[in-house]
Amino acid sequence: MQKALITLITASTIGIAHAYTSISSSLAGVISLFTMISQIFTGMAYIVGLMLFIAAIMKFRQYRENPQQVQIGQPLTLFGLSVTAIFLPGFLNLAGVFFGGQSVGAGATNTSVLPGGSS
Q1: Has residue 117 got a pLDDT over 60?
Q2: Which residues contact 112 (CB under 8 A, 6 or more apart)?
Q3: Could you point out which of 7, 40, 42, 103 has its C-alpha 20 to 30 Å from the C-alpha of 48?
Q4: Which residue pairs from 87-93 have beta carbons closer than 8 angstroms and sit at least 24 positions apart in sequence?
């Protein structure tokens, strides 16, 4: 009877340990998934910022050719949005460090320099 009880306790301990490792590996997979998603959003922010900057230059050229058809506010707005999109991941990293003590996004390990700077 005692051997059966010891065997049952040992088997349940092994089962719990195996379940713990599978749960922890599953959670590690979810965390890596969130890391990849944040890297995708960071890359998208840079690409959208670059596209908005190109659109601002093109709108400014249109304004220079015919100022009555295109208002000056359009290229300035596009330029402001492009700057916001390009620097948004860096601002989010700094805000995450300031408020929560942790960084988010791609390259979140070094928040002492602005995006594009060398460390």
Answers
A1: no
A2: 119
A3: 103
A4: 87/49, 87/114, 87/115, 88/45, 88/49, 89/41, 89/42, 89/45, 89/46, 89/115, 90/114, 90/115
* Helix/strand/coil (H/E/C) assignment for every residue in 68-107: CCCCCHHHHHHHHHHHHHHHHHHHHHHHHHHHHCCCCCCC
Token pair of 42 as six digits:
């960071």
Contacts of 46 (CB under 8 A, 6+ apart): 85, 86, 89, 115
What is the Cα–Cα distance from 60 to 46, expressed in whole angstroms? Answer: 21
Q: Which two tokens stand for residue 110?
A: 């070094």
Query: Side chain identity at 48, as an amino acid letter?
Result: V
Mean of all residue pLDDT scores within the chain: 77
Q: What is the pTM of this model?
A: 0.60
